[in-house]
Write a structure and sequence with these properties.
Strand content: 35-45%
Largest sheet: 9 strands, mixed
Bound molecules: alpha-D-glucopyranuronic acid, calcium ion
Number of helices: 4
Length: about 600
């Protein structure tokens, strides 16, 4: 739901809707070129008369191109009007391609000056769903300067795209139920390398997970993004260092740019006690060949297998080997969680790979021949991968499909941040997915699923030319085969928000509580917002694939003496950087990077509505 508007604004809105509501969406829709995907060109603003914030000056080269994404709820004919300026005396011809098919060859003739803007039109039938409309230069002079593409239905409307103002009007509501938190451990100060320029990286300790080593009752482990893997005594207290990943990796270890960079995650093999194997993911400065890389990689994510010579020892000695190395074009959305399904002992490792920040303006998350924006599943004990360092499970959903990596378990992700398997119920896998500007979602993940990013954000159309808004699904949406969240909340920007700042909403995926200690929590999927420190739940039974979004409830928070408080006050910071952990008994822990502290959920207070 959007925040309450002022009374005057509200009254004005009511009056407007009385007076002009039938015509409200009847306007041609303009897509600014500077928001579109630019292939070999730059955004400039030195020639007056453009709309938006600038225009695209393509390189003077054959193939320089601009690609617009135009969503349609149903197939229909549209006039495509390109606004351009050509200050030379020659045509700047282009090929107009719609959804990969060449449509026509508009000439983009001289307009008299670079500041004289004119239009060039074509008529085409657009398809339901997201249309890709591309103009590509056919001569070495490049494109005319392009200001925008307007999509017009000839009847005063552009067709659909009236953005959905409030996609999830049903906001989280405060529950009658509160969590009682008891302090469990506090971690030493740690610091990123190189020294951060983003204050959000300056934390007490960038702890981001708590788990328990399979087969060693009570041995809890916690990774710190800044480099150390800690053990915590069974009943809490002072952490000890098991392994210093940063020191072991050496000078290429990198944790100083991007919120997720560093020693991001660790998971222990189901047979750790006998084979001594555990797995980490960490970031490095690019310094060697990656298995796959985005262009101009700035950071590598490396998955490592470690073998402890004595699995029972409380400090690591042993060997390590690299399984997988991926290069990312920006510092965000690299490899997030890696984990084993606790409901089986198959030893298959799931690897959640983000889109490297590139999905918002490209089709990378839908490209099946690259690992970016995908959930992978590999067999660390096998060797039949391209690099020979791991195996591809024969029952993975895309094995043998041409043009598709056999490693892929599910596609279409932006930032697949945290996932877990329900240890009860039907053992479903739930994944918390951080959205672009609008939707924070939890997916029920099954083999072969396509979550739709970046054609969809949650169960809405994401328009690459208008990333600040989402649009209603097309009438033929089911033909695309996308899977949508089983729980979600939206960002609710304040009125007038211009889409430039970080609103501070990001989901922290959690766990279905199946422990014994707190019956009131049984069957609830407990998750949160990692920035705000909100702790949420929905009932697992109401998280239904294809069903309506369930009500999300926000827990009240109490300290161990029963006084109501909040995560920001417990963490001593309005930015909590909250994460969840679970021990072998299924009991729940809450972590805050802000003050490097972990609390155990020890009881509840009140009752659920
Ligand atoms: C000039 C002009 C640019 C234009 C370019 C061109 O440099 O300032 O806006 O794109 O010529 O010839 O393509
Ligand atoms: Ca140019």
């Amino acid at each position: 739901m959007r925040p309450v508007r002022t009374w005057a604004a509200f009254a004005a809105l009511v009056m407007l809707s009385f007076v002009i509501s039938p015509a409200a969406s009847a306007a041609p829709v303009r897509y600014e070129a500077e928001q579109a995907t630019i292939i070999n060109g730059v955004v400039e603003s030195n020639h007056a008369g453009f709309t938006g914030t600038g225009f695209v000056n393509s390189a003077n080269a054959i193939g320089a191109a601009i690609e617009f994404s135009v969503p349609m709820t149903a197939a229909a004919s549209r006039t495509l009007v390109f606004r351009h300026a050509n200050g030379t005396t020659s045509n700047r011809p282009a090929t107009l391609t719609i959804n990969g098919t060449a449509h026509s060859s508009p000439l983009f003739p001289p307009t008299g000056a670079w500041t004289s803007w004119s239009t060039m039109s074509a008529t085409a039938t657009l398809a339901a769903g997201t249309n890709t409309i591309r103009i590509s230069a056919t001569t070495s002079n490049g494109l005319s300067n392009i200001d925008s593409l307007t999509v017009d239905d000839g009847q005063g409307g552009g067709g659909d795209p009236a953005p959905v103002e409030d996609p999830i009007p049903n906001d989280p509501v405060t529950s009658g139920l509160g969590l009682v938190l008891t302090e469990f451990a506090t971690f030493p100060q740690s610091n990123p390398v190189p020294a951060p320029t983003d204050s959000r990286l300056v934390r007490r300790a960038r702890i981001n997970h708590l788990g328990e080593v399979p087969g060693i009752p009570g041995r809890k482990f916690v990774p710190d993004l800044n480099g150390k893997l800690y053990l915590v005594p069974a009943s809490g207290g002072t952490p000890t260092t098991y392994l210093d990943v940063r020191a072991t990796v050496g000078g290429n270890f990198f944790s100083g740019r991007g919120l997720g960079s560093g020693f991001g995650f660790v998971t222990f093999h189901p047979q750790y006690v006998t084979n001594g194997k555990f797995y980490t993911v960490h970031s490095e400065s690019p310094n060697q060949q990656a298995d796959w890389t985005q262009s101009s990689a700035v950071v590598h994510s490396v998955v490592t297998e470690w073998t402890a010579s004595n699995p029972m020892a409380t400090t690591f000695t042993g060997t390590r080997r690299q399984l997988l190395r991926l290069g990312f074009g920006t510092y965000i959305h690299a490899i997030q969680q890696i984990d084993f399904n606790p409901n089986t002992t198959d030893g298959l490792l799931y690897i959640a790979v983000g889109d490297g920040g590139r999905g918002a303006s490209s089709t990378i998350p839908q490209q099946r021949n690259v690992p970016f924006g995908k959930l992978l599943r590999i067999n660390p004990a096998g060797t039949n991968s391209a690099n020979g360092r791991y195996g591809i499970p024969p029952n993975n959903p895309f094995v043998g499909v041409p043009g598709t990596l056999g490693e892929i378990y599910s596609i279409g992700y932006r930032d697949p941040h945290r996932f877990s398997w329900d240890r009860g119920g039907t053992n479903r896998m739930f994944l918390g997915h951080i959205g672009e500007h609008t939707i924070e979602g939890v997916y029920d993940v099954r083999a072969g699923d396509n979550m739709g990013w970046s054609d969809r954000e949650g169960a809405w159309i994401y328009n690459k030319s208008d990333p600040c808004n989402v649009y209603s699904l097309p009438s033929n949406d089911s033909t695309f085969g996308y899977t949508y969240p089983v729980a979600a909340y939206d960002h609710d920007p304040p009125p007038g928000w211009n889409c430039s700042s970080d609103l501070g909403r990001a989901i922290a995926g959690g766990f279905v509580y199946r422990g014994n200690a707190i019956p009131a929590l049984r069957g609830k999927y407990i998750f949160g917002d990692l920035v705000q420190g909100w702790v949420f739940y929905t009932n697992e039974s109401s998280m239904v694939r294809g069903g309506p979004l369930p009500q999300v409830y926000q827990f009240k928070i109490f300290n161990s003496s029963g006084t109501q408080t909040s995560m920001p006050s417990l963490a001593g910071d309005s930015r909590v950087d909250l994460r969840f952990g679970l021990d072998a008994a299924g009991e729940l822990y809450i972590l805050a990077k802000a003050n490097g502290r972990i609390w155990k959920v020890t009881s509840t207070n009140g009752s659920a509505p």
